[in-house]
Design brief:
The structure holds two protein chains of two kinds.
Chain A: E1 6-10, E2 13-17, E3 23-24, E4 32-35, E5 38-41, E6 43-48, E7 53-59, E8 65-72, E9 83-92, E10 95-104, E11 110-119, E12 137-143, E13 146-153, E14 156-164, E15 169-171, E16 174-181, E17 186-198, H1 217-230, E18 233-236, H2 239-255, E19 256-257, E20 267-268, H3 281-289, H4 296-307, H5 332-335, H6 350-365, H7 368-373, H8 375-389, E21 433-434, H9 435-454, H10 459-480, E22 481-482, E23 487-488, E24 491-492, E25 498-499, H11 505-512, H12 517-528, H13 560-572, H14 576-591, H15 606-609, H16 623-637, E26 640-642, E27 645-647, E28 659-666, E29 669-675
Antiparallel strand pairs in A: 1-2, 2-4, 3-6, 4-5, 6-11, 7-8, 8-9, 9-10, 10-17, 11-16, 12-13, 13-14, 14-17, 15-16, 18-28, 19-20, 21-24, 22-23, 24-25, 26-27, 28-29
Helix pairs in contact in A: 2-14, 2-16, 3-4, 3-6, 3-16, 4-6, 6-8, 6-9, 8-9, 9-10, 9-11, 11-13, 13-14, 13-16, 14-16
Chain B: H1 4-14, E1 26-34, E2 37-46, E3 49-53, E4 61-66, H2 67-74, H3 80-86, E5 90-93, H4 96-104, H5 114-118
Parallel strand pairs in B: 1-4
Antiparallel strand pairs in B: 1-2, 2-3, 4-5
The chains are: A alpha+beta, B alpha+beta.
């Protein structure tokens, strides 16, 4: 997928186009106007007197509005243009609006033919990069003042309605304006495109659900300003950090998504534009990362995922009681059960991580009502670990899809089919117990025990969870430690054999606290060894192993969020200097992307490229990467809530100089964290 | 009681699904189209219990479908959420009760416990 398309968006409504504003979607270039997981426009092409337009410049200020300044013709023919066009677009009130202005710079009056070609294929978002023949029927209808494109399959119906503020000649393939402009005059029309998910009575299904009206572009711009104003203020001598922090806040604002189920709440979506939807793992981890700056995201995530918590056994959706969902979608393939995202539950980490987030949220905010209210959900999640996660009954959380056709094979964050492998490249047999899942389960039990003791009035349950956690920690160290290699096995396979790939997963174990103190130094040595540490961060998979590839998504690339969790884990175990090295490397890399951290960069050694090579991925911003700088800051400043206080113990590398994070919100109200920037001795 | 829809609601009132959270409070009105006109069922949920009546009282969410399709959901053969996406049922009001329907209707028949699949040999990875 191309990643240089320009876009405007509001949650799961977005427009992706070329730099001249045109849309001509193909499988290789899946642009368009999307809403409700459906493409409502696959063509949107402007011509002035039969000529395509060339961009002089594109103004992309935020995610709300976009302006294109265009001239007719190809740049090679370029002589002083006597006309130009401005396209200004936004998502406003839930619709795509484009203001089109034609300017006559000539000294003579000119007659212009403005033509807009329009089409829709109503492709479900899950299939835009594949060839697909729609099973239903497409139709087009010219109406008084507008053009209606439609798609119907049984009772399922989607329509695109295009209207214009100025009169146009409308045919089934587009709109034509004939405009006569005096010298130095201009003409403007506003086009409005609505995506409709219709019921049999011709009304939009969403109009019948209780929710606040969709916000206008102006309201959203105002909201962004208020959001930035509310967030803690960062100042730092190293501008790379402040730029990255600011950019992450802007991107996190754009990632906020209000689900139909909780229309007044905002939770982080996993990525824009392709993952603007409810997800489990990504929403939980992003909310965790963002706790020091925007704890309200965690609240919405916990509420939303609680409502959708699994309740039954369902093979198609890989659902089990108590399980936290993986992904939710509204498109046609989901409607007709060609795909399982209604919702799909195929991830083994989201459920223990849900309990981790619930506990951490309370530590930061003191919102005890919520942990009392969510006792049932948390207990169901904790029960899931033992009853359904422990597939072989040997005390380890494992995964194995029951939906073998459209389900996900690897159900941790490294979810590509070959991500979990031996050092020599062999792929282990299912069901796999990856190491980080055991860490999450351990942490969930420990935190569950605290919640049971302090808020649920159930010390017996707390005692049981603590004992189970202690037993898991002991068992884990015995079964996963590779004594001859000096690191933890990446996983146990279905026969209980160790999978010896050396990978970043081990770093999450420090975050979870399952590693005995006596082993920590050895684990840290491995993480910081050049085989794993590239100079820009810890690679997903260590160099020198059979499947290592610097461009391997989960087999060599460096992921900022992975590094943020690892840095926080290092800090927990007292390795402040190593945490600082990782934070410095990632912030250094961010500076090459104007502060917007990509999902991943290539795993080349830093000395080789001197530049962090961006991994070609579709989503930008991606929520996990957007949240990473907040957790890295937490690791640098050593922020840990304790009772009613925020403990702080800054250990910041000299490169950063002075760091001040002012007005950090939490149960303490607002508090300032200041690191003097004076060099501190190591550990 | 021979009518399967009456039997479904009677079972719901007698024996609320364990899957219902104690905290869930809300009302749903079902309007079912059939040969004899529109049949109305009103379901009220509180404290993990379900009360059922035939009144047309206001509700947080109103679900409309036909008797035949409702019967499929009552047997666990069709899932309410995808049915809403396909317009096999329509919903008005609060969407969270459309999601909640999953907890009122039976699970799909024949689903397996992960442990019953777990140890069989299978695809690597």
């Amino acid at each position: 997928m191309k990643s240089d398309l320009v876009r405007v968006l509001d949650g799961n409504i977005f427009v992706l186009s070329e730099h001249n504003g045109d849309i001509e979607a193909t499988v290789a270039n899946p642009c368009g106007f999307f809403d409700f997981d459906t493409r409502f426009l696959c063509r949107w092409q402007l011509r002035l007197n039969g000529e395509r337009l060339t961009p002089l410049s594109v103004a992309e200020r935020d995610h709300v509005t976009l302006r294109f300044f265009l001239v007719p013709g190809a740049p090679t023919h370029y002589v002083d243009a006597t006309s130009s066009v401005i396209r200004e677009r936004a998502i406003t009130g839930g619709a795509f609006e484009e203001r089109l202005t034609v300017l006559n710079h000539d000294r003579e009056p000119v007659e212009f033919t403005v033509r807009l070609d329009v089409a829709s294929d109503f492709a479900p978002i899950l299939s835009v990069s594949e060839e697909r023949t729609p099973p239903g029927r497409l139709y087009r209808r010219v109406e008084d003042g507008g053009l209606r494109l439609g798609y119907r399959r049984d009772r399922f119906q989607r329509e695109t309605l295009i209207t214009s503020s100025e009169p146009a000649q409308i045919d089934e393939h587009g709109l034509t304006y004939t405009v006569r402009l005096a010298p130095k005059q201009s003409w403007t029309t506003t086009l409005r495109v609505q995506g409709l998910a219709l019921r049999p009575d011709g009304q939009d299904v969403r109009e019948h659900l209780d929710r606040p009206p969709r916000r206008s572009a102006a309201e959203r711009r105002h909201d962004l300003a208020a959001w930035l104003d509310r967030a803690p203020t960062l100042s730092c001598d190293w501008s790379a950090l402040t730029t990255t922090y600011r950019r992450s806040l802007v991107d996190l604002a754009a990632l906020r998504y209000s689900p139909l189920t909780l229309p007044e709440d905002v939770m982080p979506a996993a990525g824009l534009p392709w993952s603007a939807t409810i997800t489990g793992r990504d929403s939980i981890l992003t909310s965790f990362e963002a706790l020091p700056v925007a704890p309200e995201l965690a609240l919405a995530t916990l509420r939303m995922l609680g409502i959708d918590q699994g309740a039954v056994l369902d093979d198609f959706r890989d659902e089990e009681p108590g399980k936290i969902l993986h992904e939710f979608r509204y498109g046609e393939m989901v409607a007709f059960e060609e795909r399982p995202e209604s919702p799909y539950y195929g991830s083994a980490d989201a459920t223990p991580l849900y309990v981790v987030l619930l506990d951490e949220y309370e530590r930061w905010t003191g919102d005890t009502d919520l942990v009392r209210q969510f006792e049932d959900e948390a207990r169901a999640a904790l029960d899931w670990i033992d009853e359904y996660g422990d597939i072989l009954g040997d005390g380890y959380v494992r995964y194995r899809r029951r939906n073998e056709r459209t389900g996900v094979r690897n159900q941790g964050w490294k979810d590509t089919p070959e991500a979990i492998c031996h050092a020599d490249g062999r792929l282990p047999g299912p069901p796999l117990a990856t190491c980080e899942l055991q860490g999450y389960a351990y942490d969930a039990k420990r935190r569950g025990a605290r919640l049971a003791r302090e808020f649920w009035g159930d010390p017996a349950y707390a005692g049981r969870l603590d004992r189970e956690a202690a037993a898991l920690r002991e068992r884990f160290d015995r079964d996963f430690w590779l004594a001859d290699r000096g690191y933890y096995a990446l996983a146990l396979d279905g026969d209980g054999r160790q999978v010896d790939g050396l990978a970043s997963n081990m770093g999450h174990l420090l975050w979870s606290g399952i590693v005995p103190e006596s082993r920590a130094a050895r684990v840290v040595e491995q993480l910081m060894d050049p085989r794993l540490f590239s100079g820009w961060g810890v690679r997903t998979f260590a160099e020198g192993q059979d499947r290592y590839n610097p461009l391997g998504y989960h087999l060599g690339a460096v992921w900022p969020f992975d590094n943020a969790l690892i840095a926080w884990g290092l800090r927990r175990y007292g390795f402040a200097e190593e945490a600082g090295r990782i934070a410095e490397a990632v912030v250094d890399a961010a500076a090459y992307f104007d502060g917007q951290l990509p999902e991943a960069f290539a795993g080349y050694p830093r000395e080789l490229t001197h530049y962090p090579v961006r991994y070609p991925t579709a989503n930008s911003p991606q929520a996990l990467a957007t949240g990473a700088p907040f957790l890295l800051l937490r690791a640098l400043l050593g922020l840990e809530p304790a009772g009613e206080h925020l403990l702080m113990s800054p250990r910041v590398p000299a490169r950063f100089g002075r760091v001040e994070l002012l007005d950090v919100p939490g149960r303490w109200g607002r508090i300032d964290v200041i690191s003097s920037g004076l060099g501190q001795p190591d550990r | 009681m021979s009518d399967p829809i009456e039997a479904f609601f009677a079972r719901l009132a007698r024996d609320a699904p364990q899957r219902l959270l104690r905290r869930t409070v809300g009302t749903i009105r079902f309007e079912l189209d059939g040969p004899g006109g529109v049949e109305v069922w009103h379901v009220s949920i509180a404290d993990g219990r379900v009360a059922v009546s035939r009144t047309g009282e206001a509700a947080d969410t109103v679900i409309r479908t036909d008797r035949e399709f409702f019967g499929r959901m009552a047997r666990g053969e069709a899932k309410p959420l995808t049915a809403w996406l396909r317009n096999d049922l329509t919903a008005e009001g609060r969407f969270r009760f459309v999601v909640l329907l999953e907890r009122l209707f039976p699970p799909p028949p024949g689903a397996r416990h992960p442990r019953s699949v777990g140890a069989a040999p299978g695809e690597p990875g």
